[in-house]
Amino acid sequence: MNYDSIIFDMDGTLWNTEKQVCAAWNKVLEDAGHPKRVSEDEIKKYMGLPMNEIGMKLFKTDNYDEVAELFGKCMDYENRYIAACGGVLYQDLIRVLRELSERVPLYIVSNCQSGYIEAFFEAHKTAEYFRDYLCYGDTGQLKDRNIRTIIKRNNLVNPVYVGDTQGDADAAAAAGVDFVWASYGFGKADGYVRKIDSFPDILTL
Fold it and tell me: Distance between CA atoms of 169 and 9, rounded to whole angstroms?
């Protein structure tokens, strides 16, 4: 297939921030006097979910409004923490993004909170490689809607979405675009047109 653009998921596709998110959330919870503490294994289960769903699962509630203030503080501090210390980038990420961006426009669509993608840009100086980006925190819309928005406002004709979970595959299908599965990430997926076992494999797409 000849794709005119690539849209990337974030967590499990471009980088891993489990350790950093865990440290940031636990500091906020401790400072607030809350008994809850999170582990990296627990964080891994939440990666890729919309932020309100994570908040409800984290605090075991069906009413996000009950935990919105505290969880909002977790996310705000997480953004600042990650912007300062960065995350774990997948293999040769900067080199591959540089090469890809010279060949095809690159975009990001994630279920993360507002400010998280910007933290990635700030920590690793990656903003120059992406033409546009959108997340759940910006719009309150799920991933398939945000993929369609990116497509529409950038006049994309034949994009492909790259992600690591079945949720990513389902979102790509709902948005009407092909899906490439990053098998090195957090989840399993089917319905993909191609599989990449390491980030540099995207250069063969």
Answer: 11
191 and 94 in a single domain? The answer is yes
CATH number at residue 77: 1.10.150
Q: What is the pLDDT of residue 45?
A: 87
CB atoms within 10 A of CB 152: 9
**81 and 111 belong to one structural domain:** no
Domain that holds residue 55: 18-85
Q: How far apart are CA 51 and CA 19, in angstroms?
A: 18
Which amino acid, residue 100?
A: L
pLDDT in tens, 12-66: 999 999 999 999 999 999 999 999 999 999 998 888 788 899 999 999 999 999 9
pLDDT digits (tens, 9 = 90+) for 148-198: 999 999 999 999 999 999 999 999 999 999 999 999 999 999 999 999 999
Q: Rounded CA gap, 63 and 73, in Å?
A: 17
In this structure, what token pair is assigned to residue 30?
Answer: 């401790």
Number of independent structural domains in the chain: 2
For residues 12 and 182, the answer to whether their CB atoms sit within 8 Å is yes
Residue indicated by tokens 């653009």 = 5
